[in-house]
Amino acid sequence: MPAPPEGRAVKRHLAEGQVLFHEGDHAHFIYEILSGVLRLTRYTEAGRRQVIAFGYPGDMVGFPDHGRHRAECDVVAPADVVVHRTGAFDNPAMDLALHGRLVSAALAEISCMQDHFVMLGRKSAIEKTAAFLAALLPRVGVGSPSGPVISLPMSRADIADFLGLTTETVCRSFSRLRALGVIQLRGAQTVVVRDPGRLLELAESD
Amino acid sequence: MPAPPEGRAVKRHLAEGQVLFHEGDHAHFIYEILSGVLRLTRYTEAGRRQVIAFGYPGDMVGFPDHGRHRAECDVVAPADVVVHRTGAFDNPAMDLALHGRLVSAALAEISCMQDHFVMLGRKSAIEKTAAFLAALLPRVGVGSPSGPVISLPMSRADIADFLGLTTETVCRSFSRLRALGVIQLRGAQTVVVRDPGRLLELAESD
DNA sequence: CGCAGGATTGATGAAGTTCAAGTTACGTGG
DNA sequence: CCACGTAACTTGAACTTCATCAATCCTGCG
């Protein structure tokens, strides 16, 4: 919670579409997201795409592996980030507090990815979609008279590549959730959650 | 590579079926696998199962999140492990070398899990199965006159829960790989890879 | 030798993909 | 400010793949 008392951290603003790093790049920085949304992506040789994660405020992205990035990162919604040097990882003494925060974030990331495994491997399309929204709800849901509102700056294709589905199936799942009275769509990028409880139920499978 | 020069590390032998920790347990130890095979598992409320990872020699399992384990770990094949205290994570100064090794392992784990994402989300049954074998090949493949041999101490159900498939589909995929002349089955637990190149092709999707 | 549990194979059906045709939303230029 | 054009989103229909249900086949072990 206290601002890290070290001079190496730099704040930066990122415009939509900007690429922070590519797969294989030497990893110089780790990014701590203050606002906006980032996207972590991997590609197969055959060109198939998997969105590993969306980075929301509070997240860190860019954990290096053997000094390199293993995924691509770009900006989905204009973002403010704090840029940390990866050196803080390798060398605890450089900034002990920051080092601890980075290690904690990496461990939390592992745990979070394990959840995602269950989703990718063991849930139906409607469950995946509900789980996706349910995960965003406490993080970016903004209250409104008709229920919490979630803004989705990413495309349907992004969501599909995150959930291991096609854009069409994501659309159909949204439509079904709407037909069930669980959500309401205000344009494609804005979801109003009418029945959060029901959303949770659908997300957690039955 | 050099044995960690610290007195806190303890070697232990683990029998098949033994449980190292449950989901939610306070995380006291991290395990470095010397031999044998461990299994990391998560369950959903509805009882569905997802095998997060199989731990092979060289792997570390038991990374804590906020001081707790987030998955269950048990022994698939009798194993020898080195037990490290999780304290080495929180407190770099305790054992700087070990701390560095743990952090590196955690980062490698993140990268490895990202590969798994692609597999779960974007590959067909036969591709998943081929990729599973292909990943094991360089790690546990033992040369033989008729080709590298992989031993699979885990059940078909375990493999299915790892790949996000059913046991039947895993069986059929193995059968198809056999029909294609890519592998040969010597009992259910032993796979001979006749055509490693082809296996790689199938794994990487086309 | 027979039994039990896992592995395999077969038949059927449902879920999701693919292909194709609208529909909506949005930015651009007149 | 409106018309247009493009890209994204949505819906529909046919098809593929994988799950499900069920029977049979190993294989290791008492």
TrEMBL record, chains A, B:
The keyword Iron does not apply. Keywords: DNA-binding, Transcription, Transcription regulation. Residues 123-197 form the HTH crp-type domain. GO terms for cellular component: cytosol. InterPro entries: cNMP-bd_dom, cNMP-bd_dom_sf, Env_Response_Regulators, HTH_CRP, RmlC-like_jellyroll, WH-like_DNA-bd_sf, WH_DNA-bd_sf. It holds the Pfam family HTH_Crp_2. Residues 12-62 form the Cyclic nucleotide-binding domain. One of its GO terms (molecular function) is DNA binding. This is Helix-turn-helix domain-containing protein. It comes from Halovulum dunhuangense.
